[in-house]
Amino acid sequence: MIGQRQNQLIIQTQEGVRFSLPLASPVTRLVALVLDLATITAIMSVLGIAFTLMSLVSADVAAAFYALTYFVMSIGYFIFMEWKWRGQTLGKRVMKLRVMDEQGLRLRGNQLIIRNLLRFVDSLPVFYFVGGVVCLLTRRSQRLGDLAGGTVVIRHVDVRAPALQQILGDKYNSFRDHPNAEATLRQSIDPGEAEIALQALRRRNEFDPLERTRLFREIADYLKTRVKMPPSAVFGLTDEQFVRNCVDTLYRAAK
């Protein structure tokens, strides 16, 4: 577990090509956590009005409901938000962080449940002391919930239009003729998966022809399992052109 700290999540494809994504530091994760706890506290304060009224009937029942609600909120908030926002909570979104699978695969629901159920262990004895220590000792800044769920937290780096212009140019994207399919594509592809496709395009000239062909075939085949594009949108496209159209849709067309 203890080893040299990594600043990057290294993902290696079947062809041996390596990609990297920036990992979140324990400090930025702590700031995001404080923001999330403040959000939960604010929600509980609003619900406190209902509990106050309930206490007029029975103080014991009101206290029991408050404890149960806080338990559900403290776990359910993180599970729901990370599922709804694909690996982000309010705090993570503000800090530009995102939870993803440590192998670069699609984040699964059971991973979100496991990593968040272990928050109670990570929070022992006070204010995430155990989780903070484990984050400092692990190479990828993972707390116990991350280790059990097979997840990491990465920094989400914004990609600006000029960089995309250099990579994609002004080439025609057949996907733009099918806005519904584009919307499905954006909903189906995780940011981590999109980043890998983008990095492949950025580095395509670094690969020899055979490696390049195999790499884009692997990425295209995976993306095709996430969304089915209309036949007219993919007719005549090479694997690299398919990936390029996907990246254009995910990073530029949505804006």
TrEMBL record:
Transmembrane segments annotated in the record for this chain: 30-54, 61-80, 117-137
GO cellular component: membrane
Keywords from the UniProt entry: Membrane, Transmembrane, Transmembrane helix
Primary localization class, coarse: membrane
Protein name: RDD family protein
Cellular localization per UniProt: Membrane
Membrane topology of the entry: Multi-pass membrane protein
InterPro entries attached to this UniProt entry: RDD
Protein species of origin: Rubellicoccus peritrichatus
Chain ranges of the RDD domain: 24-149
